[in-house]
Specification:
- Helices cover 57% and strands 4% of the residues.
- It is mainly alpha-helical.
- Helix 5 packs antiparallel against helix 6 and helix 6 packs antiparallel against helix 8.
- The longest helix has 19 residues.
- The protein is globular, with a radius of gyration of 22 Å.
Length: 280
């Protein structure tokens, strides 16, 4: 099978979101142009992957590619090989990726979150919607796509739960609905959504034209909404929640992804130690 044919088959698989498909396509087309689109995919071995990382490293040395970008491009090729050849025949190559510096999440403090919600909320239908949307992203730790992808039936006020059916990788999960978020959502359903509805649309959050929101709208409402998700995890950890619980609530497939928050909390522990311990 040629590299081009393998890429087409890989991108056509079921369960891949449009955003993920676009990201994979860009990385794999770049690799195919370098390796040869008509070359056999079976010829891609560890040496080829090492050469590819070396090629990317030249661009990185020139300041054009970050280590995380190189690692992502390598991961895209490895995902293609795993899907096409199977895990037993796929060259490992994981150790070829450049080591990425750990970046601690920039999480706003609770009073900052309150200020953000107050700034976007208000009395008009759109302002009520904005306040409800931002409060929910923080209170439930949702990704932007998960928040705008909610349907009316996904919010269970009686059980105080939110059903995430459009999670990353097609995974579903259930997260608690906090009191503050429930109050904002109920107000939005009373005072905001009725005036935005123009037809049959099950989307929970609607635009001024009655359509389901997209993530770009959320980013216009609050820059970098992912900070609110970081705040959700950080504040849970500071409040005593364990990493396994936070992993489930965030929808992380691996605990190692969630463990970065333990480093965030370590900063707070150090401050407490320095202030309270006689030997600090």
């Amino acid at each position: 099978m040629t590299v081009d044919a393998a890429i087409e088959r890989f991108l056509d698989r079921v369960g891949m979101s449009a955003a993920t498909r676009r990201a994979y396509a860009a990385d794999l087309e770049e690799f195919a142009g370098w390796f040869g689109p008509g070359s056999p995919v079976e010829d891609i071995d560890l040496r080829v992957l090492a050469d590819w990382v070396t090629e990317l490293g030249r661009a990185r040395a020139g300041g054009k590619l970050a280590p995380a970008t190189v690692a992502r491009k390598l991961a895209s090729v490895r995902a293609l090989l795993r899907f096409t050849l199977g895990p037993d025949r796929m060259p490992s190559g994981g150790s070829l990726a450049p080591r990425r510096p750990r970046r601690l999440p920039d999480a706003p403090k609770p009073d900052e979150v309150d200020a953000i919600v107050s700034a976007v909320g208000g009395k008009t239908a759109l302002q009520v919607r904005n306040g409800a949307l931002v409060e929910l992203v923080y209170s439930a730790g949702l990704r932007s796509a998960e928040a705008v992808g909610l349907d009316l039936g996904d919010v269970d006020f009686e059980q105080e739960l939110v059903h995430i059916r459009r999670g990353k990788g097609g995974k579903e999960r259930v997260v608690p609905l906090g009191e503050e978020a429930a109050a904002w959502l109920a107000r939005y359903l009373r005072e905001g959504r009725p005036s935005l509805t123009t037809g049959a649309n099950d989307g929970f959050f609607l635009s001024s034209r009655g359509r389901r929101l997209d993530t770009s709208t959320l980013r216009r409402i609050v820059p970098n909404p992912h900070r609110l998700r970081h705040a959700f995890a950080t504040h849970l950890l500071e409040g005593g929640a364990d990493l396994r619980t936070i992993q489930e609530l965030l929808g992380h497939s691996s605990l190692s992804t969630t463990q970065m928050y333990s480093h965030v909390d370590a900063r707070r522990l150090r401050r407490v130690y320095d202030h309270a311990h006689p030997r600090s």
